[in-house]
Design a protein that fits this description.
The protein is of the alpha/beta class. The chain has seven helices and nine strands; from the N terminus they run βαβαβαβαβαββαββα. The structure holds 5-O-phosphono-beta-D-ribofuranosylamine (GRF).
Length: about 210
């Protein structure tokens, strides 16, 4: 049984999607938040998952916070660490410690729109499509090898909230899928790019319109 530790900062709907997916061969052993008030902690506790808080405001610097966070994570001996709306910039040492076993979801079609306010920036740029990306975490923010993406149209009357809502539906779809592939050991990195074995299924996820039964 593989151990998955999920890090959140707020609502936790992506964490919820992964828990609800009940991926065979894996168990979410802990949900950890940097914010005591994170709404997602309640869902995790209600589902019998260990919850922990490492409050970043209690630390003077990033190194101290990341060291405490890593200690908390490692007590659960994770095979995979999942950043699900975890709103902290991580130190290079922390990222190195989890190299190849830490993934993140970002609400844009990377490499476009790294960082914050992705939906508004996509609208402002006149982008016709937006989307979301699940990727391995590397030291450079939102730049690691891409595992899976899904795209949605940007409608002429979209505001950032409307677009975020449309993208979130796809987040909840591709994030559990990426976790499942990793648990099934179908994901490897070759020359900095992700290869997923059984590629037809992977390709179908790129755009929901291409989905086949
Ligand atoms: C998601 O849009 C995710 O892509 C971004 O932050 C949001 C978190 O939402 N990194 P939730 O906490 O999973 O509901």
């Amino acid at each position: 049984m593989k151990s998955i530790v999920i890090l959140i900062s707020g609502r936790g709907s992506n964490m919820e999607a992964i828990v609800r997916a009940a991926i065979p061969g894996a168990r979410v052993t802990a949900v950890i938040s940097n914010r005591p008030q994170a709404a997602g902690l309640r869902f995790a506790a209600d589902h019998g998952i260990a919850t922990e808080v490492v409050d970043h405001t209690a630390f003077d610097d990033r190194e101290g916070f990341d060291a405490a966070l890593a200690e908390t994570i490692d007590r659960h001996a994770p095979d995979l660490v999942v950043l699900a709306g975890f709103m902290r910039v991580l130190t290079a040492g922390f990222v190195r410690h989890y190299e190849g076993r830490m993934i993140n979801i970002h609400p844009s079609l990377l490499p476009a729109f790294t960082g914050l306010h992705t939906h508004q920036r996509a609208i402002d740029a006149g982008a016709r499509v937006a989307g979301t990306t699940v990727h391995f975490v590397t030291a450079e923010l939102d730049c690691g090898p891409i595992i899976v993406q899904a795209c949605v149209p940007v409608q002429p009357d979209d505001d950032a909230d409307a677009l975020a809502t449309r993208v979130l539906v796809q987040e909840h779809r591709i994030f559990p899928q990426a976790v499942r592939w990793i648990v099934e050991e179908r994901v490897r990195i070759e020359d900095g790019r992700v290869v997923v074995s059984a590629a037809p299924a992977a390709a179908a996820l790129i755009n929901p319109a291409l989905d086949v039964a």
